[in-house]
Structure formats: C-alpha cells, structure tokens
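Per-record layout

source: Campylobacter californiensis
name: CHAD domain-containing protein
length: 469
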Amino acid sequence: MGLEIERKFLLHDAEIISFLEKEGLKFKHLEILQFYIKITKNEEIRYRSEDGKFIKTIKIGKGLIREENECECDKKEFKEALKNRIGTLIQKDRYLFKLNNNSCNIDIFNAELNGLCTFEVEFKDEQTAVFYKLPEFFSNFIHSDVTCDAKYKNKNLAICGDPNVNFSINNIFNVLENSDVELKFPPNMDSKEAFRVLFFKILNNIKKYKDEYLLTFDEEVLHQFRVNLRKTRSLLRMFSDIFDQKTTEIFSDKFKILANSTNLKRDFDVFLDFLSSQKNVDEIVYFISKANEKESEEIKKFLSDVKNYEFLDDWELFLKEESDFYNGPKAKLDLKTVASYHIRRELVAFERKIMALNEKSANEKFHKIRIELKRLRYAMEYFSNTLYVGNFKKYESRLKFIQELFGSLQDRDIWLEILDKMPPSQRVKKLQSKIYKQIYKLREEILQKRVKFVEKTCKISRKLKYYYI
C-alpha cells in the first residue's frame, strides 16, 4: 500500500516526444492496455497489461493524493476480469523518463481516445507537488494543468470518453440526410444533442418507409415503418426529461395515433402467419384474410392523407431548432449519465414487476411488462455502444428472448379476441382451446425463467450505476 502523489498536464499533441528525443532524452516505452471493473467517486479497481505483465490496482481517494495498492495477477484472472469491464478499453503508448529527479511519463492515447496526450510528474511529498513549476521549455507543449480536473482521470476517460471532442449537429444532420450510418454516441455528448441526432435518424427512416410503402404496399416495409414510429414514442416516454414536458407529450401522442393506425393489420398478419402452420383452418384463414384486405385499404387511405402525418415536418423543424427554449431538466447533462440512469431505472422497475407475477396474475399485467421490455430493448439498441458494460450484448439477447415470450403471450390474447368475432363453429372452438393451452404454457415458461433472468438483470443494473454515481 502506498500514496500516489502526482500532477497531470494536458498536452497539445505528441510533438513533445520528438522534441525531447532531439534533446537526447532516453525513454522507456510501454504499450499499455487497461480497463476498470469498479468505478466510484472514491475507489477504482483497474487491470492493466504492460511489458508482458498483468497488474491489478486498487486506488482509493481523489485529487492530488491517493492511496494505491498494486499487485501482479496472471493472464487468466486478467481475461476473466475483462469480461466484466466497465467503459471502453484504454490503449496508450507510455514514455517513461526522469526530469530533475522526478519520475515522469507521457501518455499518447490510441483507439477511441486517439489524439489525447497527457504528461504526469510524480512526487515524494505533497508540498513539492503543490509548488512544482514546469521547466520553461515545456510551456510550448502544455495546454493546461488537469491534476484536479476529474474529466481527465483514466477512470472517467474509460466511461466518458475524450472531454475535448466537439460536435457540429448541423454537419451530423447533413450526413444523416444523405446516408444511413450507424450511430455511436460519445458518452460526454449533451443528452439533448444526442437525442436530436437519434430522433432525426429515426425520422428519416419513418419518412423513407412511409413513401416506399405507398409505392409498393410491401408488408415488411409497413412493419419497419411501424417499428420506427414505436421507437420514437418509446424513447420519448422513457427519456421524458430531455425536452420540455408539454412538447414531449404532444409529439408522443401524435406518434401514438400514427402507429396505432397500423396495429390491427399487424395483428392480422401475425395471426395469419400462425394459421399457415395449422390444419383444417381454411374457413378461419378466409375470414381473417378478408378482414386483413379491408384493413390494408384503410391504411393506404390513412397514409395517403397528408394531414395524418404532416406533424412529421413539425417534428423535423423541432429537432433542428438550436435554442434552449424547449429544454427539459436533463437536456444539458451528458449522455452517459442520463442514459445509464434511465435504463437502470427501467431495469429496477422491471425486476420488481416481473417478480410480482404469479399463477393468478391477469394477462394484462404480463402485457404491461412486455411494453416496458420493448422500451428497454430500444434504449439498449442505441446506447449499448455508449455504455459499455461486461456481457451487455449477451444480456440484450436474453432480453430479446424474454420479451418475445411476453409478445407471444399477448399475440395469443389478441387472436382469441379476433376469434370471438367470428361465427361460432367447432373449428373455431378447437383453435381457441389450442391457443388457451399455449397461453398457459407461455405463462408457465415466463414464471420459470424469470428468476435467472432477474439475476442477470441485477448484475447489469449494478454496473450501470457506475456511470452516474
């Protein structure tokens, strides 16, 4: 156990390396890969590989002086810890040297932190550190003293990214208007700016699929149109504190109306797909196919009327609005804080609700949870690259599986409602009986699998908390 007393400076670039080499200074060069498995305000647990060694470090404290405990570990422990890392991998070239008898290092960051360069000086006591003055020749290379700036701590670089990254939202909009690129949001981006970009990308998809459907009447295109409408509304509801409440509610309601216009056709399509694998249901298929054809005509008519979706132009203007007039309470907070908090809040609520289910719970309670699961999936789809948590992608697959179980349950409830509207017959009764049995099995499977799934959810939830505490 020892104390770490150091000053840290932000460099303009890596030119100082060439300068010092020309002056005859000899470096020890290390290629470093490091990551964290625990990050709080006063403690961090870090793993690092350098020069063929694997090192585990626990640091306690903050600011100029910190307590540090370091020990070597084997490659197996390092790899196991890597599965549970929080934040991005930090990759950097470190140049070690002595300056006026003080141990120094220059870190040139690579990969996601490419372009960031820092200089650190270590001291034997606090007084020397406080009154330390850099050599005159360093002034041309130093941008600022960041010793007490938490943004430049390695643990925060891991979860927040480079604090010097700047964004031009208008340039991003121009790119999105001309190409369909995958979004990866920097953790330190303002939440409002991130959601403006995200909603703009989804809006482009909505318009594209709407126009394509009116030309082709392709069912898959209509499905994608519906999905993007639901994504917008779900994210607006989940992150309701990014924009002001009234604006959020107005647009949320409009997206709901537009999405709901396609719901019945979706129900018919899914039911017909199920019926295609059933025997002796020709009469039922005929009845539902006719209803589906009629619903298709209604949708074509609805989407052909500009009045039903002209609010999309208002939504685009709103997203391009640069003033703070419509800001919600969390508009200016960084994305990693807001996204991690809201996703974790949804996870905690989900844990509580799914564990409250039992054999006597009404199907309606299962259906409400399905909606929450879908919101979670949409949020994770867009922010899993921003909030790196060990096994996050694996958890997304589990989340999809459990959500599909809930979805299958609700589908069957809807099918029973459709069958109730048909003329009674033995074939209808037989099919209803079969669907009831499937509902029972789905409920049973959900109740059986929930415990293990909640255990996985708790682990993810705890790790997400590191991003905003």
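summary: The chain has a mean pLDDT of 92. The chain has three domains: 2-160, 167-173+188-328, 334-469.
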